[in-house]
Amino acid sequence: MSQIIDEYVSLLTPRAQGAIKGVARLDIEGEGSVMLDETGARAGAEEADVVLMARDEVFRAILSGDQNPVTAFMTRKLKVEGNAQRALKVSAILVGEG
């Protein structure tokens, strides 16, 4: 597991615990994937109800609040596969509003 994936897992575990229904996956271009579910975050590339895909810089900007996830999606910096409502819930967790 890369150091970048470790950072995401550490940051997102407390945000995701008890805040997400189903399973979400963040695909970080060139780095790997992080799975999110009600137990927290972990490294992995399993099946998910919704998948968010972006470069590391885009996810970091979303996590810090410098990038609105909806704007990132509209400008094609963030791609989504799966349920749009779940993607919105995951984006709320990413920005710390989950």
Automatic annotation (TrEMBL):
The protein's name: SCP2 domain-containing protein
Taxonomic source organism: Roseovarius nubinhibens (strain ATCC BAA-591 / DSM 15170 / ISM)
Domain SCP2: 19-94
Stored InterPro entries: SCP2_sterol-bd_dom, SCP2_sterol-bd_dom_sf
SUPFAM superfamilies attached to this UniProt entry: SCP-like
Top-level taxon in the UniProt lineage: Bacteria
